[in-house]
Write a structure and sequence with these properties.
Blueprint: E1 6-14, E2 20-23, E3 32-36, E4 41-48, E5 53-57, E6 63-67, E7 71-72, H1 77-200
Antiparallel strand pairs: 1-4, 1-7, 2-3, 4-5, 5-6
């Protein structure tokens, strides 16, 4: 039995022209094991360059020999196109959930953007109110300070009024006493005159009464 040197396993593809006979030996005299569809990917096991046949293994594990002239180093353009379409379909199917998630994220982003805008507006309004409250508080502090100052001034004025009132009462009491004394003196003086004048006046002679 002949033997061939083992070659490094390589991947080849059946041409996309016609189905290829997979034979039990390295020539067309051997029986056909099965028909390989065009574009089938196979693994190279041995290469009989003299006979022009290569031993391969199919994806299902079947071993056999095929004519070397019907193998290609890369898939045909038709097969590549078909595989690309399959890949695109798979990617499209796989990307569908991602698109849905993207749409949901975009909706959430829109909602969050509106909330951020509302929050920004609320913050600006709060800042304005805070400035207003600060001004009111400052005015209230100033009013309280002024009120305390006025109260202190009022207390001082009230004290001065009380002092002046006491002085006025004292003066009025002194004036009343002065008027009373003057009245007493006037009355006493009148009484004294009434007692003195008759005695100092000259008496009339009795002849005058005759």
């Amino acid at each position: 039995m002949l033997s061939w040197p083992a070659t490094a396993q390589q991947t080849r593809w059946i041409t996309d022209e016609l189905p290829l006979d997979l034979r039990s030996g390295n020539s067309n005299r051997y029986r056909v094991i099965k028909m390989l569809p065009p574009g089938t990917r196979v693994t190279v096991l041995k290469d009989d360059r003299k006979a022009g046949f290569i031993q391969i293994k199919t994806p299902s594990g079947t071993r056999g020999w095929v004519n070397n002239s019907y193998l290609m180093d890369e898939p045909s353009a038709r097969q590549q196109l078909a595989e690309a379409k399959v890949l695109i379909a798979n990617l499209t199917n796989e990307s569908q959930p991602i698109r849905q998630q993207l749409a949901q994220l975009q909706q959430k982003n829109a909602v969050l953007s509106r909330q951020l805008e509302e929050a920004t507006g609320s913050r600006n309004q709060f800042e304005k109110e805070l400035v207003s409250v600060t001004e009111i508080s400052s005015n209230a502090i100033n009013l309280d300070r002024n009120n305390k100052t006025l109260m202190e001034s009022n207390q001082l004025l009230q004290h001065e009024i009380d002092v002046l009132k006491g002085e006025n009462d004292r003066l009025e009491d002194g004036s009343d006493r002065e008027w009373f004394l003057n009245g007493v003196l006037a009355v006493g003086f009148g009484v004294l005159l009434a007692m003195v004048i008759p005695r100092v006046a000259p008496r009339r002679k009795h002849t005058e009464w005759r």
